[in-house]
Each structure stands twice: as C-alpha cells, then as structure tokens.
Specification:
By secondary structure, the protein is α+β, with helices and mostly antiparallel strands. Helix content is about 45%, strand content about 20%. Strand 7 and strand 8 form a beta hairpin.
C-alpha cells in the first residue's frame, strides 16, 4: 500500500503540475492575444485576414439543434453594380456542407456583441463564452460561435473597428478611407479610361456607400 500510495501521489502531483502549466499557458496566450488586439496594426491585420482567409465559426440557426452549421465568415468588398452604382461592403458566410452563401451589408448591422445568457436562452447548445450576437436594423438576429473565447473577442473588436473606420471616413469625406473596402476595378474598361475616370468613380462610390449608411 505504501508503494501504491507513492505512485498515486506522484501521478496526482504530475496531474496537478500539468494542470497548472496548462492554466499558465492559457493565460499567457490570452495576454499575448489581447496585446495584439490592442496593437496599432490589429485593424489592418484583421481586415486582411477577413478578406483573404475568413473566420471559421458555428452558425446556430435552429433553437433546438444540437448540430449547428459550420460556416466560413468573410468580409466582401463593395463593388460596382451593372447600373454603375456601388454596393456597400458585406459580411458573408458560406455553409461548408451545402456550399450556400449568406450575408448582409455591414451598414445593416445595428449591434454586434458578445452573446449573453439571456440572448442564448433559446439556443441551449451555444457556448456563452464564445458566442456572438448580430442584430440587424430589420430586427433579424444571428448567433455565431467562435472556436475560443479570444477568437470571439478578436472578431467582435475587429468588426467594430472596421465599421467605425469606414463610417468615420465617410463622415469626414476621406476619399481613400471611404473606398478602402470597395473593389474599384472594372475589367471592361481600358487602363487609360480607368485612369481618367478613377477620381469620378471614387467619388461616386463614396457617395453611394454614404447613402447606404444614411439609409440604415
């Protein structure tokens, strides 16, 4: 029994040590991530990631579903429409299994925040610490769940900064900042014509996006 006790004690000690190390590593990672979120380059890095790679999340559509949909969220730049006007940037997501796309213009968003227990009362399988509530101007709501709590914080902070930056640029008349999330390329137009009309296009794009912001 003495030998068994010694072995058991050693295992318990090792488990405790491993648990402490895990907590320390988790805390260190959280601190590093928070530091990166607060860094001056976070917004541009987030925007680049959302445009190029996207963010994998769970989409809780049905309140009683134990199997939420795996989706890839991305930011899609506004672009020139067939009638010559420009649409606003959109937050889109793709259903990985069904290959279906969904989305809405970012100015349709009324609020985007961490989902509380109250918000998730009809979604018992959504993890509160990782879930995001998106509330639109038309009263539609969407529940997404990030892989970790820090991924949730990063997404919420990043989206808020992107929307705030675009709004600020529009209000201040910052042409370059306003068109940062717009695809200004027109493959049907020659390079020379594009150069001559680029300033006109930028101004029109800025006006169209401003109108979309005001309408919402």
């Amino acid at each position: 029994f003495a030998g068994f006790s010694s072995v058991y004690s050693g295992r318990a000690s090792t488990a405790t040590s491993g648990s402490k190390t895990s907590r320390i590593n988790h805390t260190t990672m959280n601190r590093l991530l928070m530091k990166s979120i607060d860094s001056p380059g976070f917004e541009k890095a987030f925007l680049h990631d959302m445009e190029s790679k996207g963010e994998s999340m769970l989409w809780h559509q049905d309140t009683s579903s134990i199997d939420p949909t795996t989706v890839l969220l991305r930011l899609k730049k506004g672009h020139r429409l067939p009638n010559g006007s420009y649409c606003s940037p959109r937050l889109i997501w793709t259903d990985v299994r069904k290959k279906q796309n969904h989305g809405f213009e970012i100015f349709d968003i009324r609020s985007l925040d961490h989902a509380s227990m109250v918000n998730l009362k009809d979604f018992p399988y959504a993890i509160p610490g990782r879930s995001i509530l998106v509330y639109l101007n038309n009263s539609d709501t969407f529940i997404f769940e990030a892989a970790t709590e820090m991924d949730m914080v990063r997404f919420v902070r990043g989206m808020r900064l992107v929307i705030a930056r675009l709004t600020r640029s529009l209000v201040m008349g910052n042409l370059e900042g306003s068109c940062e999330l717009l695809d200004m390329e027109d493959p049907k137009r020659s390079r020379q014509a594009s150069f001559r009309n680029s300033e006109i296009d930028w101004s029109r794009a800025m006006d169209d996006v401003t109108d979309a912001m005001i309408d919402n």
